[in-house]
Amino acid sequence: xxxxxxxxxxxxxxxxxxxxxxxxEYLQRVSDLINxxxxxxxxxxxxxxxxxxxxSSLDHRFQDAQDKFLEVMYGIxxxxxxxxKLCVSDTxxxxxxxxxxxxxxxxxxxxxxxxxxxMITQIKMAFEDSLQYVGWMDVETRKAAKEKADAIYNMIGxxxxxxxxxxxxxxxxxxxxxSDLYFQNVMQYYNFSARVTADQLRKAPNREQWSMTPPTxxxxxxxxxxEMVFPAGILQAPFYTRTWPKALNFGGIGVVMGHELTHxxxxxxxxxxxxxxxxxxxxxxxxxxxxxxxECMVEQYGNYSINREAMNGKHTLGENIADNGxxxxxxxxxxxxxxxxxxxxxxxxxxxxxxxxxxxxFAQVWCSVRTPESSHEGMITDPHSPSRFRVIGTVSNSxxxxxxxxxxxxSPMNPARKCELW
Length: 422
Description:
Blueprint: H1 2-8, H2 24-36, H3 39-54, H4 60-74, H5 83-107, H6 112-131, H7 139-151, E1 153-157, H8 165-171, H9 182-199, E2 220-222, E3 227-231, H10 246-262, H11 284-302, E4 305-306, E5 309-310, H12 317-341, H13 354-364, H14 372-381, H15 387-395, H16 399-404
Parallel strand pairs: 1-3
Antiparallel strand pairs: 2-3, 4-5
Helix pairs in contact: 6-7, 6-10, 6-12, 10-12, 10-13, 12-15
């Protein structure tokens, strides 16, 4: 309680305060580890954590030391990121919604939000249509799953308040900036952010509250709110461009939309109902069947390796379910779009059909290069599979991919056993 009281100050806590603990076993093991670890090691760890958190805000002596540390941990050589990019990144971290207003005005076309909403609707319909073919799920649970998908709330582009300067000022009214004192500004932002968080205690959840700033190139699904959020930052190339062929857009941002939607039904998201409550809403038979179905993916991804280090298929299960479900829903939505609007013109010189282009659009968003050290760190801590296997693992489970690329039966990209949940 003393720790929580310090974290939530100046909000007053008492011994009757309800605390939700999502991972009691983890916290117990961490507590045991702390109690059994030499206090000097704990002190060093806490000091290092503070130094790492603040080093980028200090002068070159600290940044040079951090560069050496990062080289050992991730194989990253001395950072050559332009200073303007660092400044923009720091501004987004602290004043992201103010920066977001500028970003939206400069990059986000007025009809982009409408187009994204239409795509999400099409993908949601495709996902719900697929539910009727999920043979391992009983009728009652399947009906409840459709209701949950129907109830998912979409937040696209940016929150409305950022385009109103008066409303934006209210958000940062309690944050004071001091000229020429960068480090002090950073520390004051941490305090300001903590006060904002503490002030939300005991208040009803605000469904309109964003956990990502508009320029962020990412998206998320919130199980406790049953909502999906797609900031303006990800509604850009290579995920989406309003003038691109629909095949590329469905293969890019469309799969991301399907991915976030499927998170509502992965190994963790499925435990929350359509209102965001953590409660049992599946029949026991469907729960057991779901677990049985997931064994295929756990085994499949567990057989992949990076630099001779095997992946942990159980650790990445939730994201793998979302990748596979997202690709399937997005492709089905694209097929539906072509039936309604007719086939698009084929891009010249590529020698690819539009169906093949869809899968290329999906694959290219995961093009990346990582050092061996960074790959090792990702294998241990990242719930996502390495980018290579987010592509290979997912498309090798796709009947449509095998069909359109004429992969021989039994080949690595068209195995006899394909893993499928949704």
